[in-house]
Amino acid sequence: VEALAAAMPHNPTKPAEHGFANGVAPQAGATAEPASRLPTGSTLSEANSNDKAGTQAPEGVNATIAPLDRVRVDSSGQMLTTNQGVAVGDNQNSLKYGVRGPALLEDFILREKITHFDHERIPERIVHARGSGAHGFFECYDALTDITRAAPFQEKGKVTPVFVRFSTVQGERGSKDTARDVRGFAVKFYTDEGNWDLVGNNIPVFFIQDAMKFPDLVHAVKPEAHHQMPQAASAHDTFWDLVSLMPESTHMLMWVMSDRAIPRSFATMQGFGVHTFRMVNAQGESVFVKFHWTPIAGTHSLVWDEAVKISGADPDYHRRDLWERIEAGAYPEYELGLQVFTEEQAEQFSFDILDATKIIPEELVPLRPVGRMVLNRNPDNFFAETEQVAFCAAHVVPGIDFSNDPLLAGRIHSYVDTQISRLGGPNFHEIPINAPIAPVHNNQRDGLHRQAIHRGRVNYEPNSLAGGCPFQAGAAQGFVSVPARILADEEQGKVRAKPEKFADHYTQARLFFESQSPVEQDHIANAFRFELSKVTVPAIRERMVASLRNASEKLARKVGTGLGIDPLPGPLPPALPNPVQPEVLKSPALSLLARPGDGSLKGRKVAILVAPGVEGSSIAAAQGALVRQGAVARLVGTRIGRMPTADGDVLDADCSLENEPGFLFDALVLPDGAEGVAALAQDGHTLEFIKDQFRHCKTILTIGASSALMMRAGLPVSMAKSHSLGTTGLVFADSSGVDSALQHFMAAMSRHRHFGREMDPPLL
Ligand code: HDD
User: Which of 44, 280, 317, 663 could form a Cys-Cys staple with 309, CB 3.0–4.6 A?
Assistant: First the structure.
């Protein structure tokens, strides 16, 4: 490479021209590009073995770092310049004729600065505008060459860099994170055979079966057209009007009204590819697959009252959580599982695998774990990376292919198309975060914002003047579509219609509801009640309840009662009165409780309330024990700053009852020390703090004198004390027994919430 660099003319002051590390100019017509620009050693060595996969990427290391380094800018120690590199002498004053005179048109420095500023915003995404991203890697457990030739799955331990963006769907770019909504879960794999985008959600089904309906769905759920309300909410007339007229959405509505739609963290939600895809091996044989991401930390959600309050106190709740987990080294991690099945199996299923409103129960096709993804690096710049990243359902690599799902077909068009207006032209693939690690060579030229400088006069194929380059890769290396058999009756010709099984809108909605725990069922009913109570037109509410009767009488009755609809309206006539008997009537895997996770406290936030005069030693013990488990234990004071303890020490509260209210924490420690407790009792925030922790079923450790706070907050302390330690999530200790109480407290925390305490309506 050095010899080539010396021989070829290139600009030594621009050592990293687009696509060529080291700034080496390509030889005209040459094909000497390496097959992969992944840094050597991207398949990590067995030296770092772990019990799961045999290999592990070094912490904080990620193969996209080097390629992106060529565009990273660090201004430390640098002089301020214009965009033309001209040094700026004065960045405070515009150029004027005399100090009190008019500003001059010739002030190119002012004009450049203001002009750039005027254009600093791009259109937000039409859906999924609000999002947060992270870099990471995917590591393959074992070679999957039997079913796919896709690059990330070719070798045990192979590591592929990824960029992931999580998002809400309805709200605008600056809207709250904890809205009741679907979460986007989009993964860009920078494979050594091109970029593969798995653009999924945290829910495995969708509202509609055909892309034809997508604009209507989005128009209906977005803020209403006349007054642009409500923001980041589906609880309004137009959404429920549409979905109550469209029973195919019933299954999805069950998921969206469940706690899945208010996750605790991006690190505690599942991800799904939703559609049926294909995997294709080197022999051209294909199987169907569904993609599932399962969080190692378990699936955990918020409760609705908590989500509403968080949206006021910290609208960036999920963004902050993701950022802080990664900064703290508590990297979010997910296991990739595949449901693999054949066309022959698919033909026997009671549902159609091309229908995005249906799942394949795991009891029917079990999950095969194939790798893990770790998010270990925060972006350097939100706009350059998270905002400009362009995911496209059309981006697949050899070894991955589409099914005929009509929803997917529309997506294959929509994503590339939308980037052209969002990112300002057809060259968005050259924006660094979107640029593949695999080399790009073709005859697509020009267009707005073109970065690459193509050499030579040949921009067509076939050619002889450039030795036929770039040349077609052929079937062995290139992307080849699966020559799939069309399952439809060919004699039908062109139709605008659906297969019959698509018309079964209720069987799987029922399956989902029946598979939930009683608490989850209650939450679903309460969410329907809340959302429909915001609908102003009674006929829409009634139509929705009429539709729910086809999915679950129990649910419809509960929702109807909550809305004062009595008697219930007759069930909506179903499109398919006698659907095929389902294989599975209950699927425990559909409950959030089925995936409690590794029980780790990593990244969990614990508040330790403090005031001048609390007992310092038990607080120090609690903080130390929690931090050792990877939890974030924060001292929340009646004010911030230093304060003396009863035992002659000094504590430094880093947040206050006012700026970090109780619902922002996963658990609570109440201190001992009569004077400090009295000070806490004087502050109304303390009681709100405790009430919220109690109401949201979180784990509370009460040490010594703080029992008085529990009493004052109106909590049923005597009831809780009579239970064995920890079963209600309420743990009591006197100062001498803090160590053992802490063990109970942390064990109770790992169970996340204690729904036995939940009441509707809440007593407190
Ligand atoms: Fe979509 C964005 C996921 C159906 C059209 N979609 C978008 C994002 C995610 C999804 C995660 C955000 C990507 C990012 O972070 O930049 N969308 C889905 C899933 C669907 C789905 C899982 C159903 C299975 N989407 C869907 C349909 C269409 C679109 C049927 C159109 C026919 N989606 C878009 C879009 C967006 C988008 C308009 C907006 C911004 C963007 O693409 O880049 O093209």
Answer: 663
